[in-house]
TrEMBL record:
UniProt GO BP: L-glutamate catabolic process
Catalytic activity: L-glutamate + H(+) = 4-aminobutanoate + CO2
Gene3D superfamilies (UniProt xref): 3.90.1150.160, 4.10.280.50, Type I PLP-dependent aspartate aminotransferase-like (Major domain) (3.40.640.10)
Protein family according to the UniProt entry: Belongs to the group II decarboxylase family.
UniProt cofactor(s): pyridoxal 5'-phosphate
Designated name of the protein: Glutamate decarboxylase
Domain of life: Bacteria
Length: 456
């Protein structure tokens, strides 16, 4: 039996590793698996350190037991309920747990599903709105042309995608200094008979602030009394739906409000699971039109499917159930509270520096943003501070606010599980040092080529 001598050679002297890996074409021959591993492994070393990425909401740490469970379930296909019936049952356990957490009136009369992330969950919530509106309009003999969806100008880009892909007019209520979130004050100007729903955000991506869902519902109640228009709400709780039940249980934002028809969240954000998994739950069975549920024959079984994707990983669903079992209400409360405590600690430290003014302080979800004080300096801006921090390994994005406030630049920090008080103190010290360095400049920093550090 012959052996390839390059396999026994020192790792970085092997033929495959000594060359440049192909980028755009399939290689002609095979490669030793350890060499292929080394090439891919080394390329990913150029990525940032996920733990120091304060731009992302996505979970970057779970623990040894979760990692082992993940490795044991890489191959599970979520859609194949015939082969993986227990995984399918665990998926149902999870969305029913969430329905109960969100105060659904009757968990047996609700329906939900896992998704790849909360963007897909939002798409499904929007599709249910559009289809229910179309059914009602057809029954009344009215046109189903020109549906629209009302939301804040600070929504995440997934809603822009939904409106684009599914041909719905996107009606954006601009945020302002006086109205930093959608609060119902101007909603009557945007809603009409073609409005399929209103989106309320529990944790605005730009700043982390909650939109007051109850006030939005009350504004829609008043509008219905005045005009007869009955407009439902979808709560985009990508982050806040896994924070508010534990840290602010008295806030009425969920299924306690009759006008809330559906809620979505990211399991891979403050649900504390690796990417990517999301969830969407409808208040009642009839809130989701039956025609959006497909019953298919697949790999020997007959199964309902409710998702934009078909085959998709089942591992993250198992990880979500693991977290529910592992942490329970007490554990989630402890983790989310610690994240919020760290966020408020950092926010205070940054406000004490003197150069900055807080937009919010992390009292909603553990996310906060700040801006440079007006007239503070003409030598540098927040993009320069972001670049200086990146040199030390921290990713702290700077970006403009949405329309009507897009001349305002902010920086934002997302505090996730794993950003300890000790690490936070290191970050604060680096911000102080780099701010002092920028303040000591005797001439302005160049601004050519600056671009937002995060896209919404």
């Amino acid at each position: 039996m012959t052996h390839d001598p390059s396999v026994l050679a020192p790792t970085f002297t092997r033929t495959a590793v000594r060359g440049v890996a192909p980028r755009n074409t399939m290689p002609d021959g095979e490669m030793d698996p350890s060499s292929a591993y080394q090439i891919v492994h080394d390329e990913t070393m150029l990525d940032g350190n996920a733990r120091l990425n304060l731009a992302t909401f996505v979970a970057t740490w779970m623990g040894d037991e979760a990692d082992r469970l993940y490795a044991e379930s890489f191959d599970k296909n979520m859609v194949d309920k015939d082969e993986y019936p227990r995984t399918a049952a665990i998926e149902e356990n999870c969305w029913r747990i969430l329905a109960s957490l969100w105060n659904v009136p009757d968990v047996t009369d609700s329906i939900g599903t896992s998704t790849i992330g909360s963007s897909e969950a939002c798409m499904l919530g929007g599709l249910a709105f559009k289809r229910r509106w179309q059914i009602a309009r057809r029954a009344a003999g009215k046109s189903t042309e020109k549906p629209n969806l009302v939301m804040s100008s600070a929504v995440q880009v997934c809603w822009e995608k939904f409106c684009n892909y599914f041909e719905v007019e996107m009606r954006l209520v601009p945020i302002t200094e006086e109205h930093p979130t959608l609060d119902g004050a101007q909603i009557e100007q945007y809603v009409d008979e073609n409005t399929i729903g209103v989106v309320a955000i529990m944790g605005v991506t730009y700043t982390g602030m909650y939109e007051p869902v109850k006030e939005i519902a009350e504004a829609l109640d008043a509008l219905q009394e005045k005009t007869g228009l009955d407009v439902p709400i979808h709560v985009d709780g990508a982050s806040g739906a896994m924070i508010a039940p534990f840290l602010q249980p008295a806030i009425e934002w969920d299924f306690r409000l009759e006008r809330v028809h559906s809620i979505s969240t990211s399991g891979h954000k403050y649900g504390l699971v690796y990417p990517g998994v999301g969830w969407v739950v409808w208040r009642t069975l009839d809130a989701l039109p039956e025609e959006l549920i497909f019953r298919v024959s697949y790999l020997g079984g007959d199964m309902p499917t409710l998702a934009l994707n078909f085959s998709r990983p089942g591992a993250q669903v198992l990880l979500q159930y693991y977290q529910f079992l592992r942490l329970g209400h007490e554990g989630y409360t402890a983790i989310q509270q610690e994240c919020q405590d760290v966020a408020k600690y950092l926010a205070k430290g940054i406000s004490d520096i003197g150069a900055f003014e807080l937009w919010n302080d992390g009292s909603d979800i553990p996310v906060f943003a700040w801006r440079l004080k007006a007239g503070y300096t003409d030598k540098w801006n927040l993009y320069h501070l972001s670049d200086r921090l990146r040199m030390k390994g921290w990713l702290v994005p700077a970006y403009p606010m949405p329309d009507n406030l897009n001349d305002l630049t902010v920086q934002r920090i997302v505090v996730r599980n794993g950003l300890s008080r000790d690490l936070g103190d290191e970050l604060l010290e680096d911000i102080r040092v780099e701010t002092a360095w920028l303040d000591a400049l005797t001439s302005p920093m160049p601004v050519e080529g600056q671009k937002p550090g995060f896209h919404h």
